[in-house]
């Protein structure tokens, strides 16, 4: 289904209201829709281009991790089929590894951690079951992509919290990974989950319409269960209630260059502004490699998003640009092109069916990246302090093995204390030495950052998170796991 087509199965609970955000973006040029690999036709036939297959062949994924043997791939398009697959897995001994769109590039894509699993592909379970603009939620299935939900909300007074990844990635996949959106952490978007448990029963957690009052309150009353099932492999998620944000009347993303000699000064200023509430806790900082995407190579770049009432955005822009005049801030206004219309549009929650920013970042479209690009992600949390950012950059350089090129580092502000670092290692996937060196670099990053106390919060299939020791938390997790899935019907995951 194309992004612009309304989904006939969707019930919109109240009439979409026109937004006062001007639709300022002209149509995208057609050639932006595909990457060089698609355009040459060398990898994907023309017929394949309509539907995005989660992965071309089992085992081919961007990280070039050791290929896991997969018993089979089961595709489910209804909840009843998911239930049947779970019940079958309970008897045939091959654990199920559910994926939504399976585009978890750099962490293993759709590969399981252990050999012998059955991949349960839910990309065809793809209905937007309901959206309620007034109350601010949508009920989506695993195959619903963030681009499709954004397009569905076009012209309404609500937006979805888009991430910086491809528009073809799953809303539920991002939630379950506890990803980071442009507005806030994806965990804040989760209101409720529909689950198929390991014994084949169906249940729900969190808030659902018709339960616990009319106001969307993710924690409801009593024990709050949603996050037992994020970053866990204790159930198959067949739908989620996703909270929608009010569409801001105005959005302005200011590009700022950090002091060339001492970028940590700019980091500290951004922290101070975040602490004091001058800016929202969602700025992004790009190191000089990552900043290439935005046309400012060699410099640290920040994107500071001001959004809300038009007068407020205007006033905040004046205050902030005024403060940039102070050389102690360590920040100067960057070129307008460093936060161009595609950046502004993403923060405004607008769909881009051509995935322009993603193409720019990776050089490939979502369809080709697993085949054509070597990519590993390393995701530690680092204190939001200039000295810590400098230390993380130095550690990263020290870990590089062989000819591995310096990675791009994108830093997402989570709050005034924490910066999520996304370290992206690129390598030529056809060169075995480069692949080996990139993986050795990744191992070294895991060791070095752990020693520094900068722990990873999302990981890949070669570095599953292990419970911390044998303390009470590990015991509790073990008891929960045995209660929910005593026979290992669901494949043990990265978490
Ligand atoms: C250039 C680039 C930029 C990126 N930017 C961002 C960003 O800004 N923010 C961000 O958060 N991420 C970002 N990413 C990471 C990545 O693209 C996303 O996390 C992506 O959404 C995950 O793929 P998916 O949605 O297809 O999820 P999937 O691969 O389908 O799922 C991810 C994992 O969740 C579990 N899972 C999925 N579905 C189910 C289910 N239905 N039931 C039970 N378990 C399930 C499985 O363990 C699965 O492996 C970026 C990646 C790249 C390459």
TrEMBL record:
It holds the Pfam family FAD_binding_4. GO terms for molecular function: D-lactate dehydrogenase (cytochrome) activity; D-lactate dehydrogenase (NAD+) activity; FAD binding. One of its GO terms (biological process) is lactate catabolic process. InterPro entries: Cytok_DH_C_sf (IPR016170), FAD-bd_PCMH (IPR016166), FAD-bd_PCMH-like_sf (IPR036318), FAD-bd_PCMH_sub1 (IPR016167), FAD-bd_PCMH_sub2 (IPR016169), FAD-linked_Oxase-like_C (IPR016164), Oxid_FAD_bind_N (IPR006094). Residues 66-247 form the FAD-binding PCMH-type domain. The keyword Flavoprotein applies. Residues 1-27 are annotated as: Disordered. Residues 1-18 have a biased composition (Basic and acidic residues). SUPFAM superfamilies: FAD-binding/transporter-associated domain-like, FAD-linked oxidases, C-terminal domain. Keywords: FAD, Flavoprotein, Oxidoreductase. Belongs to the FAD-binding oxidoreductase/transferase type 4 family. This is FAD-binding protein. It comes from Streptomyces fagopyri.
